[in-house]
Every structure is written in structure tokens, then in C-alpha cells.
Known about the structure:
Layout lengths: L20 H11 L4 H11 L9 H16 L3 E23 L3 E2 L24 E2 L4 E9 L5 H10 L7 E5 L7 H8 L4 E5 L2 H4 L21 E2 L37 E4 L1 H9 L26 E22 L4 E11 L7 H24 L5 E8 L7 H9 L1 H7 E6 L6 E7 L4 H9 L10 H11 L4 H9 L15 H6 L4 E8 L13 H7 L5 H19 L8 H33 L2 H5 L21 H23 L7 H13 L21 E3 L7 E3 L1 H8 L3 H32 L2
Parallel strand pairs: 3-7, 4-5, 5-6, 6-8, 10-11, 10-12, 12-14
Antiparallel strand pairs: 1-2, 1-9, 4-9, 9-11, 13-14, 15-16
Helix pairs in contact: 1-8, 1-16, 2-8, 8-16, 11-16, 12-13, 17-19, 19-22, 20-22, 21-22
Amino acid sequence: xxxxxxxxxxxxxxxxxxxxxxxxxxxxxxxxxxxxxxxxxxxxxxxxxxxxxxxxxxxxxxxxxxxxxxxxxxxxxxxxxxxxxxxxxxxxxxxxxxxxxxxxxxxxxxxxxxxxxxxxxxxxxxxxxxxxxxxxxxxxxxxxxxxxxxxxxxxxxxxxxxxxxxxxxxxxxxxxxxxxxxxxxxxxxxxxxxxxxxxxxxxxxxxxxxxxxxxxxxxxxxxxxxxxxxxxxxxxxxxxxxxxxxxxxxxxxxxxxxxxxxxxxxxxxxxxxxxxxxxxxxxxxxxxxxxxxxxxxxxxxxxxxxxxxxxxxxxxxxxxxxxxxxxxxxxxxxxxxxxxxxxxxxxxxxxxxxxxxxxxxxxxxxxxxxxxxxxxxxxxxxxxxxxxxxxxxxxxxxxxxxxxxxxxxxxxxxxxxxxxxxxxxxxxxxxxxxxxxxxxxxxxxxxxxxxxxxxxxxxxxxxxxxxxxxxxxxxxxxxxxxxxxxxxxxxxxxxxxxxxxxxxxxxxxxxxxxxxxxxxxxxxxxxxxxxxxxxxxxxxxxxxxxxxxxxxxxxxxxxxxxxxxxxxxxxxxxxxxxxxxxxxxxxxxxxxxxxxxxxxxxxxxxxxxxxxxxxxxxxxxxxxxxxxxxxxxxxxxxxxxxxxxxxxxxxxxxxxxxxxxxxxxxxxxxxxxxxxxxxxxxxxxxxxxxxxxxxxxxxxxxxxxxxxxxxxxxxxxxxxxxxxxxxxxxxxxxxxxx
Length: 738
């Protein structure tokens, strides 16, 4: 999974965080080590064969990396877990009416691409964690199959109850499509890749270009990860050999209806079979047909059955013990498993981390010693639902919550701009790192290039002014979709997700064509941005590992949370205005006038206007947090150039480590207690996309007004708890200066 978000950037770090000349020397030595040819060598080896969860080559890759890391002098080991992994026994999509058609469900090999023909070793095209099923029903086209699309269908008087929905990839995480379809009464779900989204609409298709060919298919998990990621049978605990498991029937994250992905070549006859209303303009793809909604007369059969096996997975864990603060951990991770050969996703990110690790190993040989313990992780089984990282985090949860300073993630890499998402207490820190990394093409800092991109692509004058004048370029909030999820959302560990991209678009995601040939012809062909990612991750690790005082900053956090609150207020106001306008139209008879007497369509009824919600608790708490952040920032600046007593450093750093934990609640979010963070979470109906202040925001969206009031109080209490801990840290620094 690849979910890089906003652009990143930099700032002048507080003087207490700056590096001495000797530290700068170590950073310079490190930056010279990563080698683009090593990236190419690692990628060619790791992506030579399909290496999905449970595959022989997946295990072989883990063991090869283990031996390589040990040869560099690093302490490496494998940590194994056992997880549920269904693979297809039978897949069938048939159009029965008004004509006969059977989908191929097969991606063809390409002559110029040497690994695309490894048919025996490839996983078939399917969606993992779909249930078994055999359904025959009319077809309905639902566009992207997101909540707004079903609202549009309701306005058209179209129901999907008892139907098979045909949805196109995009606009949300794929698992939301069968989830919503089932809630609306559908009996099956087929997902296809429309060429308007990642095919010929954008350029030449593979192998002439980077875009998805007509028979290309996007595999992927449809596990209900907004409930919880990880092994479906061991929610909340590590999937060790002795773990107590649910039965498959008890697992809550499997789909309720069968679902299968297909190519746009296979989808075209299905779309042509539909009559009914013409699709709205923004529902129309790029196929040469009139997009219609249905239902019918197209009638299809979808038949699926799976082997529901338990498979072993292999995380590679490397530990560099800290010389001064061994119980303060910096964790760095990328996954190594792919859906097929996976050169872009995830190996492009994995090889960058490997060169980063080799650089750290070289520094250790030259005499550098990390003050803090470094833990490098190559995760397995990410693609099926973040299984490797989630099981490891759940198995070690207590120790991780006590000791982890931060988690830095990457997941795939390409050519272009540096993108970063993460905890806003780390925004200033990562801005500082980005300022010191040179863009390999433009020969300016990656921070400056990101800033210029942001200025040029701002949608409003306000955003453009913000990009020009703000000391730090804003990083995006994290939802889910990669291995930071268990660390941030479940354990409350401050996290960052880093990677380059934006100038190497394509349509090979989760297909057999995501391989070494595609990557070296259409993406970061010389691996120069892979080298930049190695430098970015490595400098971040070195800088925070060597910091006397951990470089958290809370002024940006307070400002950002204030912005989130403004968004939630605007959301409520907008909903109130929409309901008022809709009720006005109903009173004026607008909907009755357009209804056809012969049509079963029923005009909408008057709706209750969303009530006032008391946001004062959050408003007050944000102001408390802002004052605490300013106090802490002032104490740090006053101590610039002075030596903090060791006892003070140890005590303050321990408090700083726990500040992100204060934003969690032991009972988690409503409906989904696995997600503990009250500021960031993946949306219940977006999957990957983040919802900030999720308890309040989603309660408003779902019109659960009392819940919104209660969640506002919980968020306020979390912010005040964090502010109190920041105040305590500031007080210790102030006392040490007297």
C-alpha cells in the first residue's frame, strides 16, 4: 500500500536541537554513503519473483535480508507470526443477460517484461478477505461506491438491494466499496479500473508507457480495516503460535458479500449491458460507451470460493543498542512483501531503507554511537492489512508505549517531491531535516522544491500565502494504509511517513506489471530519489538519536488542531445550511413537481436541522495547549547554548515521549475501540483517508448529535492532559535554568 500525502519542508530548528560540528560531520559522512547502484541491485534481487505473504520467495527474501544485515555487522533476527490468509479456489464473473459473456480474470504476460510471465508463482487477481459466495443478480453501476454516490442513486430512485454493484477503483480505499454496498442491501460487488483513473486517458499504456493496460487488474485487501487492521482472528493481540484465535465465522473484518476486482476490458461488456438513467457527468469514465446506472437489464453471476489457511509471516528486526539512552527507542520501518513482484510497491521504499541501514552500519564501524536504541524493521504481510507491523506492535505493546520516541515509516518511492505526513509535534523537526537534503535534479533543498510546488499548486490565495510565509511547510495528518497505523492510531506513538513522488504516475498498482522492468523504465530510473530517501530517513534517525533534548515542538500542533476545529465547525454549519435549503425546496414542491407519477420514486421528507453543538470544551483546551506550548518553547530557547543536567534531560525526555500517548483514550473511538487516537484516525467510510478530530467529525457526518457532544468533551480532556504534561516538562527546564 502506498499512501504518501502532503508536501513537506523545513524550518530553522531551535538552537537546543542544532548539531555540533562533530554531529554535522557524522551527518555529512552518512549522506555520502547511500549508492544508487546498490538500490538497483537490491531491487532486482527482491523483485525477481512474486513475494506475497506465504510465498516461498517471500520467506527467501526475508532470510536473504537477514543474512545481508548480519554481514554488515548488525544485530538482526526474524520474528514470526501466524495469520489468516485466504487464496482463491474459484473465481467466476459471467454476464447472463441480455447477452452471454465470461470475464477472463487474467493479466497477460508482456514479451519485453521478463517477470510478467511467472504465472505459476503469481497470486490470481482477487480481493483478499472477501467471503465465499455464489450470487446471481441484476447489475447496478455505483460510480466509486462511496457515500455521496449512494446519495445520488437515492435521488435517482435507484436501489441496489438484491443487486450486484459495479464500482470503479478510486475516491476511497477499496474495502469501503463492498462495505457500503452490503449496508445498502447489495448481494455482491465487482470493482474495476476505469481508464479515466489510471489507464489510456492519461497516456500510453504499458509496455509503451506507464499506464494500466486494458487487461490490468488491481489486487488488494478488502478487510474492514477501519474496524481494526492486522490478523482478522487475533484482534488486539499478537498472532503468535499460542494466541487464542477467533473462528473465521467470528471474524468481524471480513466482507459481508463476495467481491472481486476486474480489468476494464472485462468491465466494458458489463457496463454496456446497463440501461436506466444516464450516469451523471462526474460518474462517466473513459470507455467508449454511454455510462448508465441500471438496474439491469444486465444480469450477472459472481462466484467465489477460497482456501482459508493460516500462513507464517516473517518480520526482519534489526537492533542497534543505544549508548546513553538504551530505553529510548527510534523505530524505522518499510514492508518487504508485495502483491506480485512489487518493485514499486514496496521494494522501492525497502531498498532505500536498506541503504540507510548500510550507512548506519558504516558509521558504527567508523566510531559513531547512537545515544538511543535504533530498531529497523522490514515488515511482512503489509499488503493484506498491515499484518506484520500490527502483530508485532500488539505483541510488544506495553514496552513500545513505554519506550518508543517515534516511528518513521516509508512505503514505496518514486521521482519528484518529498511528501510527509505525521504527528504535528514532529513538524518542525522534519522540516529541519528536509532543508538539509539536496534534490538530485534541481540541486536545491528538497524543502525548497516542496515549497515551490506548494506555492504553484495552491488552490486558494490563502493557501499560497501560507506556503510562502509560514516558517514550516505543513505536513499532512495520517489516516491509515501503511505500517505507521498500529504505532500512531493504536499505541499513540508519534509517527512520520516519508517518501518521494509526484512525477512518475502510472497504472501498474498491485498488478503483475509492477516489476523491475516497469520501475527502471518509467519511475525513478536512475534511483537518484531512492538515494534521497535513504538520506532523508538516515539524517532523521541520526539527528533524533543524537539529540540531547528530544526535538518535539507543540506550537505547530496547537495551531493545527485549532484549524481542525475550524473545519469541524464549518462542516456543521454547512450541513445546517444544506438541510434548510432542502427543506425549503420540499415546502415549495420542487421534488414533487419533478417526480413521475408512474415512477415509484418518493420525494424526500422534511429533515430535522442539525442542532447546535457545544465546541467550547475543545476551544478552551486548544488555548490551554497553546499556552503550554509557548511556555515550553520559551524554556527551550532560554536554555539554548547551555548544558542541561543529565537528570533533567532524562526526566524531560521521558515526559516528551509520553505526550502523544496523552492524545489517546483507552476505550478508543466509538464503534471501533482498537483506534485509540482522538486527533487522527482513518475515516470509517474512507478507509485510508484521515479524519481529524474523528470522534466529533464522524458523529456530525453520521448525525449522531449526542455522541458529537460527548466526543468534544473527550478530545478536550486529552488536549488538557497533554498540555499538563508539556507544562511539567517546561517547569523542569525552567527550574534547571535558575
